[in-house]
Every structure is written in C-alpha cells, then in structure tokens.
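Ligand-bound model needed. pyridoxal-5'-phosphate.
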Amino acid sequence: MQESQLLKIANEFGSPVYVYDGNKIEAQYKRLTGAFKNVKKLKINYAVKALSNISVLKLLHTLGSGIDTVSIQEVQLGLAAGFKPEQIIFTPNGVSLNEIEEAAQLGVKINIDNLSILEQFGAKHPTTPVCIRINPHVMAGGNANISVGHIDSKFGISIHQIPHILRIVENTKMNINGIHMHTGSDILDIEVFLYASEILFETAKQFNNLEFIDFGSGFKVPYKPGDIETNIEELGKKLSKRFNDFCKDYGKELTLAFEPGKFLVSESGYFLAQVNAVKQTTSTVFAQIDSGFNHLIRPMFYGSHHEISNISNLKGRERFYTVVGYICETDTFGNNRRINEINEGDILAFKNAGAYCFSMASNYNSRLRPAEVLWYNNEAHLIRKRETFDDIIHNQIAVDFSTNKENILAK
Ligand SMILES: *Cc1c(COP(=O)(O)O)cnc(C)c1O
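Prediction:
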C-alpha cells in the first residue's frame, strides 16, 4: 500500500489503527496455490490465530481457503464467517476431551496430538474420523519459542510412539483420515521441510484409510530488506512431485493440506500510531507513540523486527530514534532506528503487522484496543470499531464495600 493511502486512513479512522491490504492477502493465497498447481487436490487452511477478524476470514473464504483453528471459539468464529464445518480443521493443543467432542459435534475435522485423548476419543467415537498430529522432531529456524518439533516439545505425538498409536487404532477400530505436522514458524531451509515431509510420508504408509496429509506451516516471510524468505515456488516444485509419487504408491489421490498464518497475512498489515512526544535524553532521542505492547507485543515478546517509517514526513532527513510506547513498563518497539525526522503528531507505520499483532492485543493499562481497517480493491472498510471505555468496564462487577456490616446482614 502507498504511504499516502495509509496516512488518509489514519486521518479518517484515527490512531492507533491496524490496516490490512486485502489484495496482498489475495496475492499471497494465489502465490501459494500457484506453487502447488500440479497437485490435484490442494487445501489451504488459513491459521485463524494469526489474524482473526471476521471480515478477513470472509475474504479468505471467498478466495476458496479453509481454516485451521485452535480453540472452540475460533471454530465458532469460522462458522459465523460462513465456512462450512468440513472446511474447518480443529488443531488444538492441551484442550479437554470435552472441547474436542464439542468441535466434533459441529462436524469439523478433528486433529489430535495426545495419546491419552486419542485413546479416550477413539473408544467413545470410533466412527468419527480423526487426524493425528505427529512430531517429527525436526528443528525449524533457530528460535526455541517458535520451534515446536524438537524432542521436548509439548506439540504432536512423537514419531517414536507410532507403535502405540497403531495399538490404539487397532483396539478402538477408530478411523484415521489424516496425518499432520507443524514444525513451527520461520522455516528458512526448504531441505529441512522436505526432510520432515519424508518422515510424514513414512508415517502415512502405516494408515490405509487416509484422505489427506497436512504439512502445517512455518513459512518465513521477509521482515526487513535483504531478509531470506521461504522459497515457496521451489518448495512447491519439489514437494508436489514427491507428493504425487507418494499418492501413486499409496494407491489413492490424497489431499495435500497446508495451514499458513503468517505467510498469508503478515505482509498485508500496517500498524499506524501517532507520536505523542519526542524526548531527548543525554544519549537517546525517544519517539513516544500512542500505543505500547498492549497493541503490538511481538518486538517485546519475541524480539521481532518490524520496520518503522514516518509516513508524515517522507522527504525528511533521516535521524536515529528509539521508538517506545506509553505503557508503564519497558516497551521498546525499535532501538536506534534510522527514521525520517519525527515531529510530535506525526504518524509512524509499522510493517508486517498482519500476523500475531492485533490478535495478541490486550487492555493492559486499561487502554482501548485499536480499530481495524481492511483495504480491498481501493476501498477502506472499517472491520472493527475502536474500543470505548464501556468495553473496559462492561464485564466488571462493582461491589460496594462502603455499606456497614449491619446493613448487609439486615438484607
Ligand atoms: C500457529 C499455527 C500455524 C500457523 O503458523 P504460521 O507460522 O503463522 O504460518 C499453523 N498450524 C498450527 C497447528 C499452528 O498452531
């Protein structure tokens, strides 16, 4: 999106505000499906947790996407957005048997990643098809917080426990319709991905009633100039061929599924915030904005880099700024960044603000969460109102402790 357009949106809808470029989401969706055009049955299930606004879900629904959900509430949101139950897969971790049964009742696909729950579910509902989440123990990326395939990870059933899975399936006569893995975010090396896929194929051979193999996600997107991103086109070429060969051996045309979040929405998003004050200390110039980690926590939580530019002064001379928020804790968005000269009142734009930004926002410091705007085909749509004080107070119950004890007892 152009800076002038972003500035117009900030003027019209106020700040802080999240803006998503719907055409970018569409382009990413088409890029991914294009890379796998040689696979007969392809299913992209967008990971709702990355950005869960109902209008974003509706846009993805229009594009032909399914969704990947991790809570019963995300399932309900998907149904409200118009997805049919069979277009939804439920991939929770650490939820109760109850919640899984609730999702199964709604008719969505079920993905189980725990032997104990698998056994209980299979014993009670042997005819409901279930997909199994495998942990191939492959490290993706370098950040331990977002690598979920390693040996002591809480995600998935270890490949070393396959004999146990097979025993449960045999005893309960349950129907396994899919095999799944999700090795975590930020896969840089597609060879690592292909290696994990081989483990998945090996596992899939042991089940004779499969309908799909789900390769999860973890595609890396660029966060700054020169960043390496997952080469989707090359992955598409290599994995498609391997997948088609596997289907031939298996004797059935299976569906190849992915569940990307970041890849589809990260680059579509911009977070716009206004500079409240420029504060010069003896060593640093701080730009203090009308936001904090209550609105965008990734830099503080994961050490993520988000490019920051001053869209109010595109021609200004570059200077060094440390961009911070208004939360009464350290909340640094970027240290010593070169940014066009900042004046109080300017609007700063944060890039890659589509995935895991608004969806992780909170009301910390009793602040209001921002508005969200979806820009699509040259039109700005407000898709979430800015919160008001009423949103802060409406579930709170004010107990009056000023009345004396006798009065309470008298009631
Ligand atoms: C979070 C998650 C995804 C999406 O990961 P991205 O890195 O955003 O693509 C996919 N599958 C599962 C099971 C997840 O938990």
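The chain has two domains: 22-265, 267-389.
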